[in-house]
Amino acid sequence: MENQKSALTEETLDPAEWGDLQGLARQIVDDAIAHVRDVRDRPVWTEMPADKKSVYAAPVPNGPMPLSDVYGELCENLMPYPMGNIHPRFWMWYMGSGSYSGALAEFIAAIDGSNLGGGNNAAAFMDTQVVNWLKQMMGFPDTASGTLVSGGSMANIIGLTTARNAKAGVDVRAEGVAAIPRPLRFYGSDQVHSCHQKAVELLGLGNKALRRVPTGPDFRMDVAALRAMIIEDRKAGFCPAAVIATAGTVNTGAIDDLAAIGALCRDEDLWFHVDGCIGALIAIAPENGHLVAGLEGADSVALDPHKWLHVPFEAGCALVRDGGLHRDTFAVHPEYLEEKPRGIAANEYLHDYNLQTSRAFRALKVWMTLKEHGVDKFGRLIDQNIAQATYLEGLIAEVPELEMMAPREINIVCFRYCPSDMPEAELRALNSEVMLRMQEEGIAALSDTTVGGRHCLRVAICNHRTRRADLDLLVRETLRIGAEVVQG
Ligand SMILES: *Cc1c(COP(=O)(O)O)cnc(C)c1O
């Protein structure tokens, strides 16, 4: 009697009828396959109409709605209006184009439901295995440590925090940055990613502690200038602590001279961090791997599986050569998180290497895509993107109205439409208009930037669906839209 009563009043999120769920779940998977299969037939991007946008102003629902109706709303108001980065002609900013196995993995990870803060469970062992695989791919020793994080920005913060604590000269965890005897100085090129500014600000060092080393015409860090800055800072009473070398800058894809910077760091006793969010994975590419030689000597590396491994967002990874220093930077064991010899907690806590406590099961999507395709395939796809960028550079060279704006080293091409001798401001307006119309017409997604003080269009081919014909089309459409804009 009592039991029956509670069965009537106690609620759960599980469905009353599991059978109903089966039909809907199958429908979602079928639609998802069609969505990815037919992506090329859709515009890269479609602006969301105002009346559709307004559904996202609706207030919080207090009552229920059948799941099939909820899904129906998504089909109407979400799926037709994505960013577009799974499309073969999306080359904006820098991101991966997704993968079906990665998407299934996200689903399975959520169903498994494990919290990757740690524990004695398969998901935790898989997390450690994926970090070990990434170490192997980067040529890091077994004794190195690592952690999966939300993305490259967080991976850089993990590396730079470890660097700060290792070089501070005091116990920063106990005493704080105010106790650091000589102010720390970090060095990155003038092309360093904006996340490093956030990192040094967050670390309590301040933006001025990140010195921007000039780059040459190839946008690589000037190593002689770096050396001079270190000497100058020492003389002025600062403590040069770490160099952030970039393997693949956002603007142009330039790769700093990792071997030379690594050697300088060893000579000067500085921490050698590599921001490899774009380029670290080039290490696995048979034709281009040599471009990142020296990466394997870094004290820490940030890399981004949600870029060139194409796993769905979010997935970044920090690797640290000295696992002990890494752990010393983040490990803390309150009474409710003690290590146990047996049972569910009988494993190293993974959050000891990370700022988060609860952690997503990110490892599965990396594990599943690497298992399905193998590392060799990803190496070939990276080479393929670089070859496609070389091809685009060749197309640009054949057209007098198009001009390369920076040397192309990997998969990023900076160019502009320049039909006649025009002032810089007019060229900026013209090229911005070409970029925006290209997006609004759903043809291709490019971004723009400024390199060496001059505005340009920027194509970053981190996309396993791009074909050379897409690049032919890009050049044709740039010329067509450019001529239209000029005619007014
Ligand atoms: C993408 C990128 C980052 C930031 O990574 P997120 O995954 O976006 O957080 C940092 N550095 C470089 C060079 C990048 O390209």
TrEMBL record:
Gene Ontology biological-process entries: amino acid metabolic process; carboxylic acid metabolic process
Keywords: Decarboxylase, Lyase, Pyridoxal phosphate
Superkingdom, natural source: Bacteria
GO MF annotation list: diaminobutyrate decarboxylase activity; pyridoxal phosphate binding
Residue positions where N6-(pyridoxal phosphate)lysine is found in the record: K307
Annotated EC: 4.1.1.86
Coiled-coil ranges (or none): none
Cofactor(s) required for function per UniProt: pyridoxal 5'-phosphate
Signal peptide: none
Catalytic EC class: lyase
Family to which this protein belongs: Belongs to the group II decarboxylase family.
Protein name: L-2,4-diaminobutyrate decarboxylase
